[in-house]
Design brief:
alpha+beta, endopeptidase fold (from Nostoc punctiforme), 2 domains, six-stranded antiparallel β-sheet, transferase
Length: about 230
Amino acid sequence: TMKNPVPQAASLLLEKLLLLVHVRPLPAGSGGETPPPAAPGYYDTSCFKRGDLLEVPRTLFIHFGIYLGENRVAHLMPDILPAFTGDRRQIQQVVTNKRLILGVITKTASIRVDTVEDFAYGGSILVNHMDRLFEDQVLGSEEAARRAEKLVGATAYSLLWNNCEHFVTYCRYGAPVSFQTDKFCETVKMIIRDQRSVLASVLVGLASIVCLGLAPSTTLPTIFIPFFLWMAG
């Protein structure tokens, strides 16, 4: 018997959305707050060089940052707090899931500098793993670090057009691209084109309303017509 594709498609959609939203898995009873990061000194930073591109693979996504030296990493994080306050001490606190998700919804983020421990959050770190995809486009290490430092501060956020991967590829390779976004879009197109996955298609449309921040006054037909035309292209 053929399995019902709708639950499978919905599950895949949820995984891909979590991939881009960067929600961190939380232990039971955590109350939605971010658990403490790894202790200082957990990572050996002696092998890192200023300007290195750091990747932290997680279960459903990869988080990216630029190493600035002296145990500091610049990385882009969705965060609602910069929209309400300029207090650097509050903003610099480790971003909770609530702040992160609200930042995604409101398209608000900050390019911040954290310790390697806070950035990696207990995950393994890959160094310059993306260089193989860009070959001769790799900029000098100092140029990459300076680009990252100049961009530190509040910034707009977009799941598709300005996420943490766009930030690091601009800094190290001179062009903001996101392979995770490309994979996400291809997956969505595949779901939409499967005529059996009608429910999954509706879920994708509703998710686009919430995550991409469309105006509340926009009617459903106005949203879905261009959305499906784009997916079919």
